[in-house]
Design goal:
By secondary structure, this protein is an all-alpha fold. The protein has six helices and no strands. The protein starts with 6 loop residues before the first helix and ends with a helix.
Length: 127
């Protein structure tokens, strides 16, 4: 029988993943000017050219947060593997928060903290 992470670790990862994904998708749609694209005022090619390379960066961060959420929802992931994944995601978000302190960095601090807590709870859980 595999040992799975505790419910507290899974909840911390779910909340952190949802919060991080929501914040990043909100910023992503704002940078893409999605309202103007959907209303027909601006072609999608022009909107992506204006947004620049930040779209790829934000999309990858949102994907990382979604992966952390999926690990929490998957029932048979061993606790050491899920803890390592959540600690890695927390580390990536910490690096992003350090690199972008005046733009999106402070918005990712709660998600980063919850992923780090989830990783520690998953790994240090007693048998």
């Amino acid at each position: 029988m595999r040992k799975t992470p505790s419910k507290a670790a899974k909840w911390a990862a779910l909340i952190g993943g949802g919060l991080g994904t929501g914040i990043l998708l909100n910023i992503l749609t704002g940078q893409l000017n999605l309202r103007r694209v959907l209303s027909g005022d601006m072609p999608l090619g022009v909107a992506t050219a204006i947004a620049g390379k930040g779209l790829v960066f934000l999309s990858l961060l949102a994907l990382v947060c979604m992966i952390g959420t999926m690990v929490a929802l998957w029932p048979s992931v061993p606790r050491l593997l899920s803890g390592a994944i959540w600690l890695g995601i927390g580390g990536i978000l910490a690096m992003v928060a350090y690199m972008t302190p005046f733009s999106i960095g402070f918005l990712l601090v709660p998600s980063m903290t919850l992923f780090l807590i989830a990783g520690v709870l998953a790994i240090w859980r007693r048998a």
